[in-house]
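Service request form, structural biology core

Requester: graduate student, group of Dr. S.
Request type: structure prediction, single chain
Budget code: on file
Notes: please return the result as structure tokens.

Sequence provided:
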Amino acid sequence: MKVLICDDIEKRATRWRSALEPLGSHLELADNPDDDEVVEAIISLEKRRDVARLRREHKRLEFGPTDESDVGHNLFDDVDMVVLDYDLFWLGADSEAESHPLPTRPRVTGEQLAYLVRCFSRCAYIVGLNQFGENPFNLDLRGHVGSYADLNIGGVQLGNPGLWGETVVGFRPSAWPNLADVVQAQKQRIEFLADRMTQPVLPTLGLIENGYPTVPREALEFFGGLDPTTMTFAEFAVSGTPRGLDITDAPWEPAALIRIAASRVAKWLEREVLAGGEVLVDRPHLVERFPSLLGDGVKDLAAFDLGAYPRPESSLVDHPAAAAALFENGFWLSRPAWWWQRLAVDHRIAEVKDPWDGEEPPVRFCEDVSRFLPQEACLTYSADVHSPWVTRHVAGPKPLSQALGVAPELYEGPFSLSEVVYEPSDVLER
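Core staff response, request fulfilled:
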């Protein structure tokens, strides 16, 4: 997997590159581009954008392949993943010069560049840095679905081994994907959509029952008032921001719409649907509700923690109820998930068969460290998710945390919770 880091400050880009170098042979780090190369790439993306728009306006090509000579080669086409800093103010200027000359090109933010990369390049995955803070944890758990970056994190979090599929003690949010897997997952989504672009989004994903959406109304607001039961993937990709192409833009090549739909629908499904746990539920939140699925391990903390991240190979699949409710097309999500409504009525599960006879699990899942802790060690709060399942738990920041006596290691080392900024800041106040 080839990764490109794009920033306007060379020292910072070098520091991020150094943080990634120890993280495994699966990473091929592209040389950090200089300002001229980045500016040239942005101009190339804008040219593709203009050519596509002109062809639509002049009706010279309704929908077909674009001649490479018209759009040129682009830096972002050659990589699988691009890491974009949000503040690119010094791009095209010398940030260390005494006089600090102003940039000589139009300003662009990392978010604006993320839109161009997503819509007008062949790059598979985009990581946005620092748009929402340098070391944040978003307590609402829904991320930032409106951003065209596939993942939004802080710059100091980029080198966290837990983000790349390795075990880490300390900060490792449950909503993070395993970045070692995301490019392959995007390729699987593209392959899935190759002959399904004219199919409606919700029915194709199994999110329609008896003609009505099964997802909460609030999650459907992302569709912008358009009919989500009939909107196709192709229509979704051209329906305007923040879903796909801006309404003034046009696809620069046929495959562009497939890439846009694959990326943007996946982020919506992850952040607006899975986060709530009402339609789809992941393993940690499922065993919190139905601990009997662990069998003899129900009183064993290690059994709860098994495979909490990043892509668990869960023994739950062997349970007949769980096997029947598994969300089959797992490449749409960062972690395995199950259809909650199927499980909630399956009497093969002890808590469904006799809801008053079950034992309360002795632990709670902490969203900020992707592990279970004893209930008395957790901070409990209400997340802003589209679901009745709003009660969530974290180990929390050091001044408030009750986990210090149980897991002091969470507050030590390079990925300590002590340095994390929990937002909104008032949610955890006592």
